[in-house]
Each structure stands twice: as C-alpha cells, then as structure tokens.
Amino acid sequence: MSQSTQNHADRVLLTGISGFLGGHVALALLKAGYTVRGSVRKLAKADKVRASLKAAGADISRLEFVELDLLSDAGWDEAMAGVRYLQHTASPFVIDLPEDKNELIRPAVEGTERALKAALRAGVERIVLTSSMAAIAYGHDKARTRPFTAADWTDLEGRGVNAYIESKTLAERRAWEIMRAAGRERDLTTINPSAILGPLLDEDPSTSALMVKRLLDGSVPALPRIPFVIVDVRDIAEAHVKAMTEDSAGGRRFPMGERPMLMGEVADIVRKAAPGRKVPRLNMPDWAVRLYGLFDRDVRGIVNELGVLKALDSSAAIALLGRPLVPASQSVAATTASLIERRLV
Ligand code: NAP
Questions:
Q1: Where's the NAD-dependent epimerase/dehydratase domain (predicted)?
Q2: DSSP state of 327
Q3: 282 C-alpha to center of ligand 1: Å?
Q4: Which of 155, 162, 153 is nearest to 139 (CA)?
C-alpha cells in the first residue's frame, strides 16, 4: 500500500486521550514520532495521562493537551490550529445504560459534528473516527452466520438495539454525511472494533476491562451465554495510526474483531491466566438469564443476544496492518495480567 508524504513531527489532535483506547492510540502515535495534542474534558487530568504514557515508554516531550468537551463549542477551532490529522476516539462508553438514551447519543453525535466540522474548517487532511461493531452488526437476523462486513449497517429498527449501539450508529452515519456534504468523503476512515481488551496503561479498569474484572472479583456467580467478539487494543491503536496516512484507507470502514466467544470461554482463559484466583465455572441457563431480565433493564437488553456468535470480516484491517490480529486469548490474558499487576482485583 502507498503512503502519502508524511512528516513525523506532524501534529495529531487526539480526542479522548484519557480513555483506554485513546491512551493506546497516543502511545502508538508518539512511538511513531508524531506530535500528539490530546484533548481532555478538564486539564486537571493531563498529569495522570502524561505519567501513564511516560511509564509506558513514550517520549512525552511531543505531548500537549487541550481542554474540549463533546457537548460544548468552546475551544475546537483553537485546538485544530497547526493540526494535520484528527483522531476522534472520544465518546461515552458505559456498561450501565442511562435511563435517558440521549446522555449517550448527544455527546456521541454532537461531539462527532463538532470534531469533524472544526477539522474541515481547519483543513485537516485525514480524519480517523473510532466507530464500532455496534454500528455494523446489530438489529439483524439472529440466524445469520455470514461474517459482518464494512457494507453492513446496524438496523436501528431491529431487536436488541440499546442506547450505546444507537449512539455509535448515529454518530458514524452523521460523520459520513458531514464528509459527503463537504465533498471530502475520501478523507474519513472509520475503525469499527468489537470488544477491545489488552493491557491497561493506568489504574482505571475502564468499561472494557470490567467484564474481566467481574470474573475475577466474585461479582459474577455464574456464566450466562453472553457472546463477545474480542480484539486487541494494540491492533486497534495501530490501525488508527496506519489509517491516518495510508492512501487506500481513505473513505473506508474497517471492521475489526479477532474471533467470537461466549463468556464461558473468556472465563476459561482468565482462569488460566490467573492461577489461584476463583473464576466462576458454573454456566447460567438462558431461561435463568431471561427470568433475571424481567427485573433488570440491563440484563433484559442482552437476552436477545444469548448464544448468538457473530463474526466480523477483519480482512481489510489485516491487510492494513500487514499481519494477523493478536489472538483474542492473548488479549484476555493481557487484561487479566494488568488487573492483577495493578492490584485492581
Ligand atoms: P473509555 O475508556 O471510557 O474512554 C472514553 C473517552 O471518551 C474518555 O477519554 C472520555 O473522557 C471521553 N469522553 C466521554 N464523554 C466525553 C465528553 N462529553 N467530552 C469529552 N470527552 C468525553 O472508553 P474506550 O473503550 O477507550 O472507548 C474509546 C472509543 O472506542 C469510544 O468511541 C468507544 O465507543 C469506542 N469503542 C470501544 C470499544 C471497547 O470495547 N472499549 C469497542 C468499540 C468501540 P473522560 O476521561 O473525561 O471521561
């Protein structure tokens, strides 16, 4: 694949640098020699981010910070000054869904509008947006076995679409609309990861690692047949960096998921990676999960997905990276090791 001319001192605006993925994207960008301008909601968070990136081996002399909120117009034009590329990773990612779905949808969609429009005003060359498998693989026929591809979009009228899935789908749709309207569709790339796991950069377990944490801390007594398609955070970060300069990545979506597995298999990997720790072995039958779902809104949201293994066609991302994806078992084991090393369990 061809690379466009690039100068590694180029400045990248990275929204969501305080997040699990944002930290890894910053690390990959700094290691590749870029100057990173990370956005945080409050500058008070900058020291913590700086310290964790330094501890991970990054040269933080090329790291700077700006204050931006997805829900506020303040600062976006100033933040884009001197920026060649935008990496927009910030978006609310939560396990416990809010009563009001707009608490997720507004920052996701309005934040995408603010980030992309400011980037276009500033003449930013390429925008990489962190979308999600959530924008691809939901609301479809449960019986489908064919892998989901970049041509698929989540059907918001279908079953099992929750507020997070809606927020990511609407945000990505809005991103393509904005770029199309500006005649700049080829300057947007979306990375559409499944559930991201891998090593933690700080002491925040983040929503991503919570599933593994709950398997280790005794809060999950038995294993429902919840499906996960897992992908490694290091692969997702590297794809973000590559997508920024590969000509052929322009105007495309990159689904990324290594392989699907049920929660029981995740628990088996965690158990092996955490000798001496108690990890549940008991399977929870689907009827018990459905019964529980009568009383719990969050559980109700997943009953439609029980046992449904979805595959993602990651071939375009594998070509972009020029190598296979990290096996999901290694990503689960790395999260487990991080949680233990950082004394989070
Ligand atoms: P995370 O650790 O919770 O990070 C989310 C980031 O978004 C944080 O930096 C957070 O800032 C920022 N953010 C949230 N609301 C904001 C607002 N109103 N204004 C400014 N910043 C705001 O989650 P993550 O896993 O790294 O997720 C990063 C991206 O990957 C998201 O777009 C998510 O949808 C996507 N994604 C994640 C997964 C996954 O499994 N983790 C899978 C597919 C896609 P604060 O630190 O200030 O809260």
A1: 12-251
A2: P
A3: 32
A4: 155
9-341 adopts what CATH topology? Answer: Rossmann fold (3.40.50)
Residue 96 pLDDT: 82
Residue 194: alpha-carbon gap to chain centroid = 7
> Do the beta carbons of residue 8 and residue 14 sit within 8 Å?
no
pLDDT digits (tens, 9 = 90+) for 94-107: 888 888 999 999 99
Coil/strand/helix, residue 249: helix
What is the DSSP track for 144-165?
--SPB-TT----TTSTT--HHH
Which structure tokens are listed for 230? 């897992």
The Å distance, Cα 206 to ligand 1 centre, comes to 9
Q: Are 103 and 31 in contact (CB under 8 A)?
A: no
Q: Which is nearest to 230 in space by CA: 275, 267, 175?
A: 267
Domain ranges of the chain: 9-341
Mutation to probe ligand 1, out of 89, 232, 253 (largest number of atoms < 8 A from CB): 89
Work out which ligand 1 atom sits closest to the CA atom of 71.
18
Residue ranges of the chain whose pLDDT lies below 70: 1-8
Burial of 59 (0-12, 13-18, 19+ CB in 10 A): exposed
Distance of CA 6 to the CA centre of its chain: 26
Strands (E), 198-313: 227-232, 253-256, 259-262
**Cα–Cα nearest to 338, from 202, 173, 176, 230:** 202
Report which DSSP code applies to 246: B
Nearest Cα neighbor of 175 from 111, 239, 238 is 111
What is the helix (H) or strand (E) element at residue 128, kind and residue range?
strand 126-130
Which tokens go with 140? 């479809």
What is the residue type of 120? L
- Could you give the CA distance from residue 79 to residue 276 in angstroms, rounded to a whole number? 48
Q: Whose CA is nearest to atom 20 of ligand 1?
A: 69
Task: Give pTM, 2 decimals.
Answer: 0.96
